[in-house]
Amino acid sequence: MKVVSKIHDGRGISNVSRAGFTLIELLLVLVILGTLAAIVVPKFTGRTQQARITAAQTQIANLSTAIDAFEVDNGFYPRSLDELVTQPSDAPNWRGPYMKTGIPLDPWGRPYVYVCPGQRNPSSYDLYSVGPDGRENTDDDIGNWTRQ
User: Fold this and answer.
1) 102, part of any domain
2) Is the pLDDT of residue 52 over 80?
3) Which of the four pLDDT bands, split at 50, 70 and 90, describes residue 20?
4) Count of structural domains within the chain
5) Cα–Cα distance between 108 and 134 in angstroms, integer?
6) In the chain, which ranges are continuous DSSP H helix?
7) Tens digit of pLDDT for each residue in 61-71?
């Protein structure tokens, strides 16, 4: 917006044209930006959380495949996830490492929980992430079981 000001420079009054925004215009722009941020930011935050959940599900599927391969080779499930990368002394048919890049942490930076035999899968094992809240046995746990 163009603002015209009258300035007294000692020789008389002259009209000077200045380009700029008024305070009202600047405040209006800030309100609009704030409103847009309030709408857009939660959408991206939700997508980030969903992406982490999907990543955890994928990692659990990959770890489950490695655990099952260990069981096929050795006739028993590993006692810990570490046995997927380090051969136990009582597993002569071990053909690992079953996880080439090591045992990953979940997307929230915590180790996966492995229980054998499992409580939810008593004939095999439970493998899960404690999820976003970091606590076990809550609704956001992500595991190798079917939700009921």
Assistant:
1) yes
2) yes
3) confident
4) 1
5) 8
6) 23-74
7) 999 999 999 99
